[in-house]
Amino acid sequence: MRADARRNREALLTAAREAFLGGDTDAHVEEIARRAGVAVGTLYRHFETREALVEEVYRKEVDELCAAPGELLDQHAPHEALRRFLLLLVDHAAVGKGMGAALESIMATDSPVFDTARSRMADALTRLLDAGTAAGTLREGVTGPTLLRALGGICAMHATEGWQDEARQITTVLFDGLRHGAPRAS
């Protein structure tokens, strides 16, 4: 892809993300193209449909989220990396809420984007859990998919006002439980 085409694609993804997260979940492709500073034809050269654009915005969010464990493990002890990642997952749920209506447009398709996202998030959690149990700072026997389901339950309350602060508090309690019974928890 040429440099100008890459810039246009990134501008479109940025404009769509900002529109969706800003609450403009019904943003039309013409408006997204205008915000990106490109013609609507350019948008359609990169994304065949509005749903394809929504899917790519979400996929990019998941890519950034799932890159975090490596960076966190480079900077922090495994248990602290896990704690920070759990809070990032709560923040990701807030992004999902902001994109909710836009994401609904792809839920009815055969897109594997949600299954893929769940699998990648569970794998990221497994990586962090394994590092923590190897270090002796996290209890054994909890899997990434199980922990992701627990977080899904915590974040399912996103319809209530102030849910994100409460979800962060409950996530802290969950994290404390993961440390309880670890051989060398500090």
CATH superfamily of the largest domain: Tetracycline Repressor, domain 2
CATH class designation of the largest domain:
Mainly Alpha
| Helix proportion | over 70%
Which series of helices and strands comes N to C? HHHHHHHHH
Overall structural class, as computed from helix and strand content, comes to mainly alpha
Strand content: under 5%
Largest sheet: none
> What gross morphology would you assign?
elongated
CATH architecture of the largest domain: Orthogonal Bundle
At a glance:
With 186 residues, the chain is mainly α. It has helices spanning 3-21, 29-36, 40-46, 50-75, 78-98, 100-107, 113-135, 144-155, 163-179. It folds into two domains: 1-48, Orthogonal Bundle (Arc Repressor Mutant, subunit A), CATH 1.10.10.60; 50-179, Tetracycline Repressor, domain 2.
Describe the structure.
The chain is mainly alpha-helical. It folds into 2 domains: 48 residues, Arc Repressor Mutant, subunit A, CATH 1.10.10; 130 residues, Tetracycline Repressor, domain 2 (Orthogonal Bundle). The protein contains 9 helices and no strands. The longest helix has 26 residues. The mean pLDDT is 87.
Question: What labels would you give this structure?
Answer:
Arc Repressor Mutant, subunit A; mainly alpha; elongated; 186 residues; 9 helices
Secondary-structure map with pairings?
Elements lengths: L2 H19 L7 H8 L3 H7 L3 H26 L2 H21 L1 H8 L5 H23 L8 H12 L7 H17 L7
Helix pairs in contact: 1-2, 1-4, 4-5, 4-6, 4-7, 5-7, 5-8, 5-9, 7-8
